[in-house]
Amino acid sequence: MLAHHASSGYDLARRLKRPIGFFWSAHQSHIYSELTRLEDEGLIAHQVIEQSNRPAKRLFRVTDAGLAALRHWMTTPVAPAPPHNELVLRAYAIWLADPPAAIELFRQQQAAHAARLAEYEQMLASLLQREEDAAWEVNRPAFGNYATLHAGIGYERAAVAWCDWMVEQFERHQLSQ
Length: 177
What we know:
Blueprint: H1 9-17, H2 28-40, E1 44-49, E2 57-62, H3 64-74, H4 86-92, H5 99-131, H6 141-176
Helix pairs in contact: 1-2, 5-6
């Protein structure tokens, strides 16, 4: 995020809520400890900005060494994340649930995923309107937003379809009873 533009720890925490928070999260205490670690390693540096009626603000920026490390990190292999999806875990034992309650659960989840999908699609439309052709250029910062929105849209579409399928399975079961 600092490669996009210099920021304070507070600004980073706020930006981690949206849009980064859709796919990555960090506690505020972790942000500050990482800033300290990165600065100790010479990957970022800060300058103090005096503010009237407020304490001074530390504005962090990426150093040349930090950009080099980031460029290297961007293309190193990613270890597979351990799966952790509570809804899928519940689906594993859903045969124990009352069918109307199961239908309601998956309808609620479908609605939540549909709402997130609509939000992502709106964000993508806004990005494309604001950035025009820049979003398509892989060497521009806007491309990162464009790419992550595409990943989020694909995930939410799949989640909506799966929740719909689960509801259909239970409704079909109820009709056969």
